[in-house]
Amino acid sequence: MKQRRLIASPLPYFSAHLSNLKRHRLTRPCSQFSNPMPWLLMLALALAACLSPGLSLAGRRPPVAPAAAGQSKSAGGELVCPQTAAIGEPFVVRVKLAGPAAQASLTFMGRSTSLALRVSGPGAEAVAVLGADVLDARPGPQDVVVRVTPLGGGKPRTLKASVELLCVKRPVERLTLDPAMVDPPDAELPRIGRERALARQALGRATPQRLWKLPFSHPVPGELSSIYGIGRILNGEPRSPHRGLDLEADIGQPVIAAADGVVALTGGFYYAGNCVYLDHGQGLITMYFHLSEVRVETGQRVARGQVLGMAGDTGRSTRSHLHFGVSALGRLVDPAPLFLYDAFP
Ligand SMILES: [Zn+2]
After folding, report:
1. Distance 86 CA to ligand 1 centre (A)
2. Which of 187, 225, 241, 248 is the most exposed place for a label (fewest CB within 10 A)?
3. DSSP characters for 265-318?
């Protein structure tokens, strides 16, 4: 059996993965997936473009003008979000209010959450993690809208900013799995349907309290073995892209919580195997799949770093590893950037 290499910090892997993504942001319309060869060719071209300022990738979109996106400022407050984000890339938005507020809610791509406001000087501030899903998002501008109800009544105010979603050319991998894990037997379909409904319900949570902080802790110290967004051909059939990170882990190795949270769901699922869903508040959920053992219960409050269970190879898994997923307002996004953010409370 192959000896697994454990590393002190997976950060270099995540950094390399993220700089690849940055280089592969594309113009629209675009096809998200590619064969590995063009992916390598693109990488070579992008490297050449970095080295020679006169050379640029054909069709690359000009940067969005600073005034057109990313920021909304008024006498009542400020909403700051990045001007651009790759589809699948999570991003942080910050809200700063000039005066005290009773309540604030945020809406992005048709989904909403209340914001946990913290007093800041004479006003208040809040942060949220948002993102678009590689499965179904389209490139183009999307509004982030924050509605604020002032303390003691008064007319609600609206802050609005826009983020331009960009395509990323992504590689494709071919995997050979147990045929029952690619086309499950009819007898398993009701079970799979029930488990999907439970997962949807857990991912639909938008608890107003914010428990998360960035950066996230690494749930296991193992190497990154499969990235978010990679296209998948399973037993010769094109399937949904991979919407999480695979991290190397031995059976029985402890898996820890990436941030403070409340256990939203646990189970022994057909695809996810033994799994834990943690609700970190404001629609941010993390997922831990293929465990050999679950050590927490639904409703339990857990601290960042607390053991949730043991790594394994249950469900649709070809070897022992941890599949780590992140959902932002019900959309599965790339967990990797959340390990790399500068710390903020
Ligand atoms: Zn996975």
Report:
1. 20
2. 187
3. EEEEETTTEEEEEEE-STTEEEEEEEESEE---TT-EE-TT-EEEE-B--SS-S
User: 276 CA distance to ligand 1 centroid (A)?
Assistant: 14
133-169, pLDDT tens digit by residue? 999 999 999 999 999 998 887 888 999 999 999 988 8
- CA of 226 relative to ligand 1 center, distance in Å: 7
Residue pair 180/43 in contact (Cβ under 8 Å)? The answer is no
* pTM score: 0.82
Q: DSSP 3-state assignment of 53?
A: coil
- 256 strand-pairing partners: 307
Q: What is the mean pLDDT of residues 277-288?
A: 98
For residue 225, how far is its CA from the centre of ligand 1 (angstroms)?
Answer: 9
Specify the 3-state DSSP secondary structure of 105: strand
Q: Distance between CA atoms of 223 and 246, rounded to whole angstroms?
A: 8
The alpha carbon of 290 and the centre of ligand 1 are apart by a number of angstroms equal to 9
Residue from 161, 165, 166 nearest 69 by CA: 161
First to last CA, the chain: 42
Contact 328, 287 (CB under 8 A): no
Report the CATH superfamily, name and number, of domain 171-339: Glucose Permease (Domain IIA) (2.70.70.10)
Q: How far apart are CA 8 and CA 155, in angstroms?
A: 53
Burial of 185 (0-12, 13-18, 19+ CB in 10 A): exposed
Question: Which residues have C-beta under 5 Å from ligand 1, the single-atom ion?
Answer: 244, 246, 323
